[in-house]
Amino acid sequence: MPQVADNVRNRGTSYEYMPGSTIWQQSLQFIDMLTGFLEISELPKGCEIDCSRYAMWEIIKRVDQRDAYYSHFHDFDINEKKVACLTAYWILKLRPLTVLFENELLPRYAERKYADEINEIFAIYVLLSGLKIWSKELHKGAVFLNMNSYFETLKYSFRYRNLSIDAMVLLSESIVTETFNQENTDIV
What we know:
By secondary structure, the protein is mainly alpha-helical. The protein has one domain. The chain contains six helices and four strands; from the N terminus they run H-E-H-H-E-H-E-H-H-E. The chain has helices at residues 20-40, 53-74, 80-94, 109-138, 148-160, 165-179; strands spanning 47-51, 97-101, 143-144, 180-181. The strands form two sheets. It has a two-stranded antiparallel sheet with strand order 1-2. A two-stranded antiparallel sheet has the order 3-4. Helix 2 crosses helix 3 (80-94) and helix 3 (80-94) crosses helix 6. The two termini are 18 Å apart.
C-alpha cells in the first residue's frame, strides 16, 4: 500500500508533482502490493499478469493529488483508509492489470471470467488490506470477521456500478463497522 506522507509540498494554492524518487518508491510499494495479491490469487494455468506502468504511475499521482486536495481545502492529511479507498477507486477506473494467455486464442469461460474481473479482485484486495491496517490501529487489535460473504457483492458492485470517490470512502466505513468484532480473535 503506498505510504501516507505528510503533504508539506502541497500546502500552497497549486499542486506540486511528486519528485521522481518518491514516484519510484511508491511504484515499488505498488509492485509489492501486486506481488502479495498474485501470491494469494489463483491464476489459471498458462497465463501471466501485465501491469501497465503508465496506469500505475497515474494511480499514484491521482492518490497524491487527492491528498493535496484534502491538505489544501480541509487542512488534514489522509490516513491509510483513504489511501486504500483512493487506490482501489483508481484501480477500478484505470484498470492497470491485464491477463495474458499463452498459446490460446479463446480461453475457457472460467479463465476469461477471471481475466475480465482481475482489476475488481485486485481493488478488493487493496481496499481490504488497507482497512485491516487502519482498523487494527483504530480498534487496538480488533480483527476482521470473515469477508467471504462480501466478496461477490463487492466484485459485482465494483464491476457494474459507478462509485464515486466519496461513495468508496463510505463503503469502507460500512465494511469496517459491519465486519469488526472486539471479541473475535480469528484473523481472516
